[in-house]
Specification:
Strand 1 and strand 2 form a beta hairpin. The protein contains 5 helices and 2 strands. The protein has a domain of about 55 residues: Arc Repressor Mutant, subunit A, CATH 1.10.10. It is mainly alpha-helical.
Length: about 80
C-alpha cells in the first residue's frame, strides 16, 4: 500500500499522468497516415486499437495505440535461398 501511496504523491508521476493526452480519431488517422474514415472502419470491425467512448467521441490511450502497433509488426520471412 505504501508503494501505491508514494506513487500517487510523487510530483513527477502526477505531472506525466496529467500531461498524457488521449488521441482523437483525427490524431490517430494522422499518426498512422490513413484517412479518418479508415479509423472509423477499424472501430466498426474491431480491428483498430482499443478506444474509449467519451460522450459521442472516441479517444485512444497512447499505451493502447502502442500495443496495437506492436501487433501490426511483420517479421521478414526468409527468401527461400538454398544454403
Amino acid at each position: 500500500m505504501t508503494e501505491v501511496l508514494s506513487k500517487h504523491t510523487d510530483i513527477s508521476w502526477r505531472h506525466t499522468a496529467m500531461n498524457e493526452k488521449h488521441l482523437s480519431v483525427a490524431d490517430l488517422a494522422e499518426r498512422e497516415g490513413v484517412a479518418i474514415d479508415t479509423v472509423y472502419g477499424w472501430n466498426r470491425r474491431g480491428e483498430g486499437p482499443r478506444y474509449m467512448k467519451i460522450g459521442r467521441s472516441c479517444r485512444y490511450r497512447i499505451e493502447d495505440v502502442l500495443k496495437w502497433e506492436e501487433t501490426r509488426l511483420v517479421d521478414k520471412e526468409p527468401t527461400g535461398e538454398a544454403a
